[in-house]
Write a structure and sequence with these properties.
2 domains; 10 helices; 4-stranded antiparallel β-sheet; Rossmann fold; alpha/beta; about 20% strand; 17 strands; 9-stranded mixed β-sheet
Length: about 475
Amino acid sequence: MGAFEIMGTMDAQHRAERGIDPGRLLTGRAAELADALIPMNRVRPVLRSRHLVKGWLDRGAMSVVYGESNVGKTFFALDLAAHVAAGLDWHGHRVPSGEKWAGPVLYIASEGGTGIRNRMEAMRRENPDLDGDKLILLPAGLDLCTSDDSQWLVETILTKLPQRPSLIVVDTLARAMGNGDENTAQDMGQFVRSIDHLRAETGAHVMVIHHSGKDASKGARGSGSLRAAADTEIELTRSDDTIMAEQRKQRDMPCDGVFAYTLKSVFLGLDDEGDRVTSAVVTPAEAVTRKNKVRLTGTDKIGMQALSDALAHHGEVRQGDMFPRSRQCVSLDRWREFCDRHSLSSGEGDSSKRTAFHKLKNRLQDKEIVRIVDGFVWKVEPDDKRSHRSQTVPENAGNVGHAAVPTVPALYKSGNEGTLTQPGKEVVPDLGENPAPSTDTTLPQTGARIPLPDPDTFDPEMWR
């Protein structure tokens, strides 16, 4: 034991002999932290339900709902908020009601304009049970990053609302950042501290509506400190008319929730020029299977947009059994030309552009999004999962012996032919005019091309 440890031990014994409690000497913040210390043997589990929406949101927590522009984020958040405010189960998920009702909901619409009012009216008309005074709208911009708006908002809530809210929705983060930069950890950290202040002073769950980044696979836009602070993350994506809300993070519950919905149009009336005014409401739908869906990165999206433009301007239907029937193809040179026009590469030199295109081409082939043959490329469609190059074995007219089996071209991958012999050498047995049933079980000679069956008829998954 060192000299300082010995002195510490002696000092502790001296204080104990005279009945001096070191904890009593602490004041202020140090005293608060000392009172908060809990030894492990005194920690007890929390079994009382804390859900705001069972399986989705906890009381007093923080969530982020993000997705691309116009995907339907506000419709989703408004629908969920209205159910919480009314104490009604949200599409099969329990919401506190009756004596356990969590409290009113404050919806801060910083960028909704008149649209948010029409959406609330459409929801009231479509589902009168959601009508009431427990969902409170605040159509105003806030600065939760570079001003004291969080404190002013707390004072407003505690003064004007009949009771503390159970849920506060901030729609959107971009409109609540003031002069802050959402891409910097410092400004995003200040925004998160403002959210924490709202939660601590009101006890409410705070939901932040945000946009996805350029690379959707990396989640919400901006500094990663937002995701680190969030207890729940929900991503919205669209597939045709169906919007999928999928949990991407849950701090204290299983992360497997999925809610699919469509937007149903609701007629509200006629404007002053006699034109129809409509809005929409959330309607549950069947979830879209994503078994074969591939998530694209930002550069992959750029490359596919460039391919679409190249096909629109220079697409042609190629002849031959290696190309799809009635499908537009375009040369690799044309595709690269449009990739350059779309600024696929951040570099200006030809070498960097060539490298970026080469990586893109290989990556999209590996993901089975495009297919390339003889210098031409096309988009893979669902019916391409069965190889269009597989040929049918013709039947023998008399069903006697074997029919002549044509050579089946090998499947292509990255433009390379898989073959068991040298190009141009094929072995087709001469069976004569009236072939007898074959009893020959010998293996083919080395170098012979073996007629291959359609592999998809045996194990379709091996090619996906």
